[in-house]
Design brief:
Layout lengths: L1 E7 L7 H17 L4 E3 L21 H13 L10 H10 L2 E9 L8 E8 L5 E6 L22 E3 L2 E5 L8 H8 L5 E6 L3 H15 L2 E6 L1 E3 L10 H4 L6 E10 L5 E7 L3 E7 L1 H7 L31
Parallel strand pairs: 1-2, 2-3, 7-8, 8-9
Antiparallel strand pairs: 1-13, 3-4, 4-5, 6-7, 9-11, 10-11, 11-12
Helix pairs in contact: 1-3
């Protein structure tokens, strides 16, 4: 049994340093209330680029480029020490941290962005990095495509955990790759929300017989910086909430145990027993006794994909 905390708080939009500082404060608060794992939403550092749903991707060129430049500048290069404050606080409290971020490629082009989620273990190391396999619709004008290297389930003191981002969770083969690794706590950082999305997460809990943690992006009008280009047009002050959050904790049987946390900021807590996920597979184990490998098999390419190799 472990206590988890979902951080449903806004980023300091397009400001990496201040967003990480806020993350550290939220982690301290969660740990003070007994949390052993702290989970942040999709692209928390340094904010989900919500404007892409309000601008024409192929039009408004100057505005799109101006905003992309700020997103690029506030992204995280995992080859640097930019994420060190989160690694240090994970080690300090011996906790697990799951955090979504805009990742800036530090190896090849050094200018491509990825929608990434990292898992930081209790020793302060990044134990998995998953890049979103298929950005959704206009997201493809912001983020590159991830590969299979991060389709992993990793051991933590709270249980065996893995992550898929937002609409990746509609990809049945991606889900199955996690089920097949014995996932106990399935974490879905997301910008999506509402009853239909929560219903999908409940289905995943029933299908995979695992805990499902939906960590939603919350964004209020007051979170948009005053110097945001075309602010009044894109985000009129009459619109109080831009995204409602709807973070939720769902048991292996599909029952909602905490949340949804709607149009509200703060921390959502739940006690999660990973053993319940194992017991729930007695009747249905889609990657075990309920599989039919004589008929269906899945091949997952976990090799890094690179456009160039230097010998």
């Amino acid at each position: 049994m472990g206590k988890i905390a979902i951080v449903q708080e806004s980023s300091i939009l397009l400001d990496r340093k201040k967003t990480i500082e806020k993350a550290v404060l939220m982690i301290d608060q969660a740990v003070a209330n007994g949390a052993e794992m702290v989970i942040f939403p999709e692209a928390f550092i340094s904010g989900y680029p919500a404007w892409i749903w309000r601008l024409r991707p192929g039009g408004d060129w100057d505005l799109n480029e101006s905003l992309h430049a700020r997103l690029l500048d506030s992204a995280v290069d995992l080859n640097s020490d930019q994420l060190m404050p989160l690694c240090e606080i994970a080690k300090k409290h011996a906790i697990t941290i799951v955090c979504g971020l805009n990742e800036r490629d530090g190896n090849l082009s050094k200018a491509t962005l990825y929608n990434t989620v990292v898992i930081i273990g209790p020793e302060g190391n990044i134990i998995n990095r998953h890049r979103k396999l298929m950005p959704t619709n206009p997201e493809r004008m912001v983020w590159g495509f991830g590969d299979g290297t991060g389709l992993k389930v990793v051991d933590t003191p709270c249980g065996r955990i893995g992550t898929l981002l937002c609409w990746e969770n509609y990809m049945p083969l991606a889900r199955y790759s996690l089920y097949a690794q014995g996932i106990e706590i399935y974490i879905a950082p997301t910008y999506d929300s509402g009853d239909n999305w929560i219903g999908s997460l409940q289905h995943i809990a029933r299908e995979g017989r695992c805990w499902v943690i939906g960590s939603g992006v919350v964004l209020a009008n007051s979170d948009i910086p005053t110097d945001f280009p075309n602010r009044d047009t894109l985000y009129p002050f009459s619109e109080e909430w831009i995204n409602p959050g709807d973070s939720v904790v769902i048991s292996p049987g599909g029952e909602i145990l905490a949340g949804p946390m709607h149009q509200e900021k703060g921390l959502l807590y739940a006690d999660v027993d990973p053993n319940l996920a194992d017991i729930a597979k007695r009747a249905l184990d889609v990657a075990g006794h309920y599989a039919r490998p004589d008929i269906f098999t899945l091949h997952v390419n976990t090799q890094p994909q690179r456009p160039v190799e230097f010998e």
